Amino acid sequence: MDRADVNGVTARADVCSKAMTAPETRNERKERTRRALLDAALGLASERGFAGLSLREITKQAGVVPTAFYRHFESMDELGVTLVEESMRTLRTMIRGARNTPDGSADLIRASVRTLSEHVRSHEEHYWFLVRERYGGTGAVRQTIGVELKLLAGELAVDLARFDRLRDWSTEDLHMLADLIVSAMLATALELLEAPPGATAEITAEAERQLRLIFLGVPHWRTT
Amino acid sequence: MDRADVNGVTARADVCSKAMTAPETRNERKERTRRALLDAALGLASERGFAGLSLREITKQAGVVPTAFYRHFESMDELGVTLVEESMRTLRTMIRGARNTPDGSADLIRASVRTLSEHVRSHEEHYWFLVRERYGGTGAVRQTIGVELKLLAGELAVDLARFDRLRDWSTEDLHMLADLIVSAMLATALELLEAPPGATAEITAEAERQLRLIFLGVPHWRTT
DNA sequence: CGATTCAGTGAACGACTGTACACTCAATAT
DNA sequence: ATATTGAGTGTACAGTCGTTCACTGAATCG
Hints:
Oligomer: homodimer
Largest sheet of chain A: none
CATH architecture of the largest domain in chain A: Orthogonal Bundle
CATH superfamily of the largest domain in chain A: Tetracycline Repressor, domain 2
């Protein structure tokens, strides 16, 4: 039995023949298979890459016939972009989490790296998708990620501007620093994804030291 | 006419019916179509990603019938690994070029970034392949690149150890620094590939400043 | 209540995929 | 001069692909 039986039609018909636990409106069910399609695509893409999966495969995994796909997405590209937006939302909540650490935190770097690490671990598929398609993707998907990532670096730059030591830096320099941090953290995310869970501590330790080194240079930078 | 006519059989037969410009041994011709296959695959993969190309497509572009593929490679995976090795060789010669800048160079960072930039520009397909498959790739290809990249970071660490300021750093710290540099430079390479040639100066300038910032922190690092 | 809407079905299409097999015929080896 | 080798050919097959179309039937609407 391969069919995932998303909306459980058969099961429901068996269990509650009168009216019990399924006061499911039509829109709810539509939304449910939509989610099933997205989840199936995300799961498969995080293993094999978005380019390497087929419409038929996704629908099969979602427990739906191939043609049903078109009731929800106009094309694979549209589904891809939706996935990007979703994953990006995940990433953004991570950044927000890192930003909201208690202001006078004894060790802000450690807290941030920890946030990143935990978030990656608990949203592996989203991060796999982002990291893979950022570089390996094609067309619309990769470009969307690139733009969103630049935007995110921009937000980070604004955050950085609030620190005392960075108060008088030029925006150019702040962006340079933000880009550097994003690059390093993206690489860290990939290492976390690839390595066994046991290596987490080691990887985060290195990421931490990298950030620390970067910030050691900050007081000696002569902004332009 | 789509056939690339790699080994120019037809043309040769027409032009020099007796014996003129083609004293081509059998092995030479075999090597030639092998190259044609590799080039075709590299070209297509740098646009669409290695996962998204087919054997038939490669052979068509190489001007050869699909089944001929198997005379040169056992599978697509073998071709992929060959491509990785080749691209890695390219990358290595780049590093060597950066290392061999005159020892007391006034500005080693600038020279290194310049070397990177020029090398990326003149080997775009190799770098596209590396960057794409490093993250987006599947199975053997991605893993091979990951290992090779770690090795390369190791070499870089050894190079770094020769600098006065880094002489007393622990190997751990040197690796941490090397990884950071590799991450930043990989991101730079991707930006160079994605941006129009006109933006080269801007991108290299940022990369330069990032490296400069990193090295500003070096004298203040307390090694473990 | 009957009429309508529309998510999901199932068969069919033409195009493309990787691979098996028997072949040709020029470059080599004897 | 003859035999052998092997790179490249051509046909064929069983799958999978995306997409079309007419359809069913339950939830919704009037």
